[in-house]
Write a structure and sequence with these properties.
Radius of gyration: 16 Å
Distance between the termini: 31 Å
Largest sheet: none
Structural class: mainly alpha
Strand content: under 5%
Number of strands: 0
Helix content: over 70%
């Protein structure tokens, strides 16, 4: 491997769709301990949050002016709204946290940032909700990756 496994875990965690749900098991498969995999994946996924919250409002502006981008944005927005709009409308930032914290496909930091921008959640509420959601999802994936009984030992 040309790079250390930590670099691969960090980069995979920053990818949309895969995020830390795929990065933690990848790190374990590459020989890192579950705890090391969790930390590198957490760092990679947390780096996405301010980037996405900063870029998506700009993307919305671009999508309104360029038809090719508009279709892609509307499709993404519709998918994310379907998954989490009711929860965020009802619970606010707590709903955004829960949306990201449950490690299901399509509910990570990227989707959470899209949802926050689309629904107009202020950054000062969106950022901590997304970051804490990423930590919670990472802990759940860590437990599942290390096994429920063995996973608890990594948290000590």
């Amino acid at each position: 491997m040309p790079f250390p496994p930590e670099v691969y875990v960090l980069l995979v965690a920053a990818l949309p769709v895969v995020e830390l749900r795929g990065a933690i098991p990848l790190g374990v498969a590459l020989g890192l301990s579950p705890w090391e995999s969790f930390l590198w994946a957490l760092l990679g996924n947390l780096l996405v949050v301010p980037l996405a919250l900063g870029l998506f409002p700009w993307a919305v502006g671009l999508a309104t002016r360029v038809p090719l981008f508009a279709r892609a944005w509307w499709a993404l927005e519709a998918r994310v709204r379907l998954k989490g709009e009711a929860q965020v409308q009802r619970l606010g930032a707590l709903g955004l946290f829960l949306f990201v914290a449950v490690p299901l496909p399509g509910t990570g930091a990227w989707s959470g940032a899209v949802l926050a921008v689309v629904l107009g959640v202020r950054r000062r509420y969106a950022f901590p909700a997304l970051a804490l959601g990423v930590v919670a999802a990472g802990l759940l994936v860590l437990l599942l990756t290390g096994g429920t009984v063995h996973g608890l030992n990594y948290l000590r």
